[in-house]
Each structure stands twice: as structure tokens, then as C-alpha cells.
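Attaching the record inline, Q. Sequence:
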Amino acid sequence: MEFDSFFEKKPPGKQKRPVRCYLYLSHEEIKQLKKQAEAAGLPVSRYVRTLSLYADDASLKKKPVDYNRLTVAINRVGVNLNQLVKHYNTWGLSEKDTQELKRFHQYTHDLLKELIKSL
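Structure, as predicted:
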């Protein structure tokens, strides 16, 4: 029998998969993995095998989204928009205010587009 630090070959038999693969996870990671496998209706080993062998490489390389940063940014835009509306109701809207409002609109649109793309 040949041993490697990551793989262990089992003695020949009638097994479909005679090579065992060891993987170290934190308690939180294994909890999350079990939950995802259960949601997919698969045993954990089949779920991991399916993800590792058949997952789209592009989805694995996707940059994770910082939801906290997005939430703070969207909240700030809302606060700024609220200030603009208050200013408009009090003083009216100048050309400069109109341009600023358009800029905020584009910024909000871009943030929401990024959020939707990450889902």
C-alpha cells in the first residue's frame, strides 16, 4: 500500500472509489459543509466530490462580496439622498444639485448591480 499525506489507497476490492482523501476543516466549516450538503440532498462526501470535480472554475475564482461595505455604502447614499430631498423641499433644486443627484443615482445603481451579481 502506498501512502501520501493527503491520499490513502485502500486494498483492492469491489469498491468504486479505492482512494481516500483526507481534508482538515474547522468546526464551523464542517457545520457549514453539512448544512449545504443537506440542503442539496446529498451525503457530504458526494457533495464535496461533486463540487470539487464539476464546479465551474469561474464561480470558484469569483471575488467574494463584502456585504458590510455594501450595506454601509448604500446606507450613506440613502442619507445623502434624504439630505438632497430636504434641501429641495426647502430651497428648490439648482443645476449643481441636479448633477449631484444624477451622480448619486448612478452610484446607487452600480452598488445594487454589484450586489445582485454576487447573489
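The chain has two domains: 7-61, 67-118. Residues 77 and 104 are 7 Å apart (CA to CA).

More tomorrow.
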